[in-house]
Amino acid sequence: MKNKDDFMIVYSLCDKGKMPEELISSLRSIYRFIDREKIIVFYTPPYSQHNYNIFNKYAIVKQVDNVTLPFKYMSGRPPSRYGEIMGHLGEISSSNVFILDCDTIIKKNLQELIGGDFDVGFRIACSWNNIDKQKWEKLFKDHNKKPIPVPNKGFMVFKNNSHKKISKDFMEYMKLDLAHVSPYNYQKDQYALALAISGYKVELWDKHTHAYVWSSEENTDTYVLHGRVLNPIHKIILRIFFKIKKKLIRTRIK
Predict the structure, then answer these.
(1) Torsions phi, psi of 74, nearest 5?
(2) Is 175 left (phi over 0), alpha (psi -120 to 50) or beta?
(3) Is residue 1 predicted with pLDDT exceeding 50?
(4) Do 111 and 82 touch, CB atoms closer than 8 A?
(5) Strand pairing report for 7-13 and 202-205
(6) Tell me: the pLDDT tens digits for 221-250?
(7) By CB neighbour count within 10 A (0-12 exposed, 13-18 middle, 19+ buried), where does 198 fall?
(8) Whole-model pTM?
(9) pLDDT tens profile 115-135
(10) In 3-state terms, what secondary structure has residue 104?
C-alpha cells in the first residue's frame, strides 16, 4: 500500500444508555496505538458539554445533526436511529477509514489491517444465521445487486475512498422500505449497508480480527473485542432469555 498513514478512525454516538462510558473505554484502548488527530467522534443529539470535554481529550469531536430516519428495529420497541456513523462517513477526506462501535476494546494496532487487495473488510454478523436466504437473494435481485453476507458494522475498514460512495448509497437505501428478511428483528441499517457494499472487493474477517463477546470469544487473540464483557451469571441469564425469545417468535410465526 502506498500510504499506510492515510487513514482515520471513526466513532458515532449520542448521550443515551451506556454509550458514553463505553466510548471512553474504547478510546483509551485505541489511544495506545493511534494519535488523537487520527480519531474522529461524530457526536449526535442528545449531547452534553461534560462528555464532549472528556471525548475531546482522546479524539476530534464533531457535534453533528442526525442524518438517518428512525425505524422500528424490533417489535415492542419504539423507532430508533441506527447507521448514523455511515451517514457521516462521506465527510472523511482520508482514503482509508475504520469504523468502530462504542462497545469495542482495541487490542492491537489497526493500521496493520490496511494492507491487502480489497476495498471493504468486515466480519459477518451473527444475524446472518437467522436471515431467510431466499428473501435475502430477492432483496438484492430487486436492486440489481449481487448478494453478500450481512456485515457487522461494529468494526469495519473502507479502503481506496470506497467509504464516500458507500456512504452516499447507504443513505439512499435507508430512505427505502427494505424487505423484512428475518423473523427476529429488522436490521435495516445492515441490509442497506450490504446493498451499498455489493460490487466492491470484500475481505471477510474472523474472530482473530473481530471477536464477539456474546459468542464467548473474549479470550481470543484479536484486534478488536466487541461487546460488553459479562460475568458468568449474566451470560447464563442472557442465553436463557434469547432461547425463550426465539421460541416465542417461532410460535407466533406458526
Answers:
(1) -150, 145
(2) alpha
(3) no
(4) no
(5) unpaired
(6) 999 999 987 655 555 555 565 566 555 544
(7) middle
(8) 0.89
(9) 999 999 999 999 999 999 999
(10) strand
Mark out the alpha helices in the chain (DSSP H runs). 19-30, 49-55, 84-88, 133-142, 162-174, 188-197, 232-253
Length reported for the chain = 254
Helix (H, G, I), strand (E, B) or coil at 97: strand
What is the CATH superfamily name and number for domain 7-229?
Spore Coat Polysaccharide Biosynthesis Protein SpsA; Chain A (3.90.550.10)
Residue whose cell numbers read 476530534: 60
Computed over every residue of the chain, the mean pLDDT equals 90
Domain ranges of the chain: 7-229
CA end-to-end distance (rounded Å), the chain: 53
DSSP 71: B
Q: Which residue matches cell numbers 477509514?
A: 97
Buried b (16+ CB within 10 A) or exposed e, 15-43: eeeebbebbbebbeebeeebeeebbbbbb
- Nearest-angstrom CA–CA distance, 244 and 254: 16
Looking at residue 162, its amino acid is: S
Strand order in the sheet with 151-158: 60-63, 39-43, 7-13, 96-100, 151-158, 120-124, 202-205
C-alpha 252: how far from chain center: 29
Indicate the range of 22-36, 140-154, 229-243 predicted with least confidence.
229-243
